[in-house]
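Worked example (supplementary).
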Amino acid sequence: MMRISKLTALALVFLSLCLTGMATAAQTEESGSGDRIAKLTIGTINQINDANPWDYYFGVYSMMLSHQGLVRFNKNGDLDPELATSWETEDLQKWTFHLRDNATWHDGKPVTAQDFKFTVDYDLEKDPLSKSYIGTIESVEAPDDKTVIINLVKPDYNFLTTIAVVKTIPEHIFKSVDDPKKFNDLEAAIGCGPYKFESFDKDAGIVTYQANENYWGGMPAIDTIQLRMFKNPDAMMLAFQKGEIDLPYYYSKGISYYYVPKLLENDDIGIEVYLERGITNVLWFNTAVSPFDDKELRQALSYALDYEELRNMFTAGYGTTPSAGWIPDGTLYFTETRTLAQDLNLSGTMLDSLGFKDVDGDGLREMPDGDKFQPKLLTRSDLPDSVRAAEMLKKYFAQAGVDIQIDLADKSTHGEILDEKKTHEMALAGTTFWGMMMGEGYGSGYTDTRYYGWSMVSDPEYQSLVDDLGKTQDTEERKELAAEIQSYYAEEMPQFAVYSMNIIQPYNARLEGWEYNPLHGILSYGTLFNLHRA
Amino acid sequence: MRGRRDYLLGKLIRYGFTLFLILSLNFALPRMMPGDPIINLLGENALHNDPEMIELLRAEHGLDQPIHIQYIRYLCQLTEINLGYSIHKNLSVVELLTSSLFWTVLLVFPSDVFGSLLALLCGSLAGFKINSRADYLLTAIALSLYTCPAFLLAMLFLSLFAFHLGLFPLGNLTSGGKEGIDYLLDVVWHLSLPVAALSLLGGASKFLVVRNSVMQISDQQFVVAARAKGLTEGRILNKHIIRNVLPPFISMVALSFGFMVSGALIIEIVFSLNGMGTLIYDAVLARDYPVMQGCFFILTIFVLFANFAADMLYALADPRIGRSS
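After joint prediction of all chains, the assembly is encoded as:
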């Protein structure tokens, strides 16, 4: 009898523990004063290690919430004024920016031109990564508190895109910091944006931001923003369905289509599908190595793929296949080029004419010199969809008589081969919106050997187009150049899209005013300033 | 007495040599893997940095030195318990290890204890009552759990107890913003599901070993003799059979304690916990040499210590071992 009562007592204690926990579980608070949102909880699987702007993901969220640059991408992918109210340039090499008068740091000190000059100089000195995007800055001048003059090493029309991702840091905080990566102090997170960093609870996986009441653009619509980190996307989606988070958020991509049917059953959940401005999977050829230096071979291979099947299999109807001109629809001055479609007969005829024939009768083609034709396809082993896509490509190429070998590599090795060694023959990898804007835009950053050069294009005709884009301001001329570069891709095919998944973004439908922008997704200023109860 | 001392000394020398060997391997293995931590850190930007800048980064992490200098420096740092600075996470390795190790021990230690006790109790019962209904039922449950992938069981727990019934949270170590006793209760509440899942998964494999050992020992002559003397079944099981099952059981438990610090990767990922499993996994993917070395160092120490403890406990559990050696 005594044992039974002890067990009962133990069970009661455990039950009360569960109930206490349930009662205190963090819930979204929508009701603020008036139409304001008291708290917005964002779920993410992006892992922040420390509240240090040099931590990759903390830096990403800082740029969205607490820090600002001179300009910012808007919902159309164009650039809006931010700390700079206006700018001018005559030769695309010397850029003058005029800063707004009322911007202040979160500690109350004014934001000055000297802060921006300090930021660029400091980044170039302390952060090796900065060289890749602001390495073309020769010098920065701050003739007065509100004027910034940036001198570039060469004219660059696309410079505003570059400078849009430079977050300004306060000189008065960082001038005495020798190693910013180790500066994990609360002060390190001081910015001048609409939200102030408040705390990072590592054990709870929660980063908290508070609205900045002194923000130059007025109070944002949400008082408190919490980022709640998950390591498991399924748990995050369960928390979303349960109402514990308002928004499942992945930086620069949406959720998997697997979750959509379940989410559609829930009236409190809304779903929007946005056009992806990067490309989820691209087949890259190393055009600097034989036989992939032959454009006809690249074209022949492009006819081997069943794009419709790939689109259905990997996007379940939520994706597209960009045309042969490679640039995604929605990009400024997008032009229609050949639609990518499977034509095995044409592929076979072209391969035959190039001398790639099945000599030994095993159903697979040999090289013109009689050697086996077994090109390697480099693929990331840690991305399940990439591995599956590589398997599908192997099947399609085998139908055309080409025996490709899948070369699986983890992220580190894949990066080493594609970015440094350039020993790949073919590779599967995706592009992002920001990546497509790099270099002189239109994917030149990925293509041109002077930038990332995944397809190793050093053709003077192509590089001349890229250079012209860099120094041309006239709208009509730029339109023509954009069309020419897309025609070049469609004809030369240094790379082509395999499929592209659109951004599936679910959200709490009890709130309205969500706005998407191609760089930061649904965590845009439009959302931060317009969100309200439905 | 002298036999015991020689036994202990012999073991110590052997463990010292093993430690040195493993520490050397810990240094060599990450460097033998393809991939470069600096290129990984810079990613696509590697090409667009001055080679000078890349070399500076290498120098910052001591990777510009000849390999034998790196090795000597690594050994010297180990003697000072200086494990360096993470290349990717911008935090000192000791800081990363301290936090991850604490939560891992809090997650895995109770799981190991509960799992082992459960295995000992149920395994003894099933083995002693072989071919009974209880044996069939327990063995069926244990086999189901043993063959169940960890992520599946963990997701089932999460879906059933956290999502549908709402009895537990959907992950993380705490809810945040709590102090004192509330904080402790909150941590217990958060760790209940992962500990339960891990206990069942660990207990299932041990159950089968205990059951089979008990079954084999139950047929031995001394058990028959005990029955003939008129001892009760409970006394035979507790005093004679379990005592003989203990050495292999101790060895198994000690090993699981040793590997405890490697964390429980799948459980940590499903329940969004910061532990050694995810720390090691991230470090391997990023080729973060200092973190990998630090984790493997701790792992080595724990495994060797657990083995050493098992050796000592062996001698206590079975006095014949000390005498024969």
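Two points are worth noting when inspecting this output. The mean pLDDT of chain B is 85. Chain B has one domain: 2-34+83-317.
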